[in-house]
Amino acid sequence: DDYGGLPPPSKDIFEILGASPATATSSKSQRSTTELLFREDLNASKESTLLQKARYSSRMDATSVQELALTDVDAHMKTAVVTPAIEKQKNLATLSMTDRQRKELDRKERAKTKGSNWFNLAAPELTEETKNELELIRMRSVLDPKRFYKRSEMKTLPKYFQIGKVVDSPLDYYNERGTKKTKAKTLVDELLEDAEFQRYNKRKYAEALEKRKKKAYVKATMKMKKL
Q1: Do 199 and 175 reside in the same domain of the chain?
Q2: 3-state secondary structure of 122
Q3: Is there a domain that residue 90 lies in?
Q4: What pLDDT does 24 receive?
Q5: What is the per-residue pLDDT for 102?
Q6: Looking at the domain assignment, is residue 6 inside a domain?
Q7: pTM of the model
Q8: Which of 119, 116, 161, 118 is closest to 138 using CA atoms?
Q9: Structural domains of the chain, count
Q10: What is the Cα–Cα distance from 36 to 39, expressed in whole angstroms?
């Protein structure tokens, strides 16, 4: 009879496999015992690993708590970049700078003014118009023959200065006040509009030319005598 590739019911499967039922049973029991021991060892190793992790975490927590207790918070806050008053800082870009960069920036900022003893007198930009104004102030002793000024000690143009504007007093008569039409923007314009200064300037210029002519005549005469 054909049993679909299976042994007939009259034959025991152990005879076909060549093993007795007792041997198969013992091998099964041995295999189950091995699996049970392996599972017990695995569970024991897991428990030991979890116990070690718990001990390590508790020890680290205790260490971190002790370190925090010994940390000087005030000393760290003095050197901290982010302070409680960070929202009041005017320039937050300096927080990321090093000490050397911050010192260099402070030095450049201090160079922009004369200092607190001079009421932080600024160093303005020297334009061509400003240079002419300063040169006129240095030459003020030759602009007016009726006034005498102390000789200026500065041989170069000043770095720190301010140019102001004369404010007329409300007590002055309106004719004595300078109107917008008569007021000039600069000292050069004011001198060019002054008729008396123009006459004086032309006279002094003519005298300078006459002196030059005399000097040139004397030099030419001396040269002719040498020949």
Answers
A1: no
A2: strand
A3: no
A4: 47
A5: 84
A6: no
A7: 0.43
A8: 161
A9: 3
A10: 5
Give residue 17's domain range: 13-70
pLDDT for 158? 85
For 86, 156, 189, the CA distances from 195, given in Å and listed in that order, are 62, 30, 12
Q: How many residues belong to the chain?
A: 227
Q: Is residue 111 part of a domain?
A: no
DSSP 58-108: HHHHHHHHHHHHH--HHHHHHS-SS-TTGGG-S-GGGGGS-HHHHHHHHHH
User: Is 151 part of any domain?
Assistant: yes
CA distance 130 to 126: 6
As given in the structure block, the two tokens for residue 74 are: 């005030």
Instruction: Yes or no: say if 163 and 133 are a contact pair by the CB < 8 Å rule.
Output: yes
Residue type (1 letter), 143: L
Q: Do residues 22 and 63 share a domain? A: yes
Give per-10-residue mean pLDDT for the chain (227 aa).
63 60 51 64 74 68 59 68 61 73 87 86 87 84 76 78 79 64 71 79 85 80 75
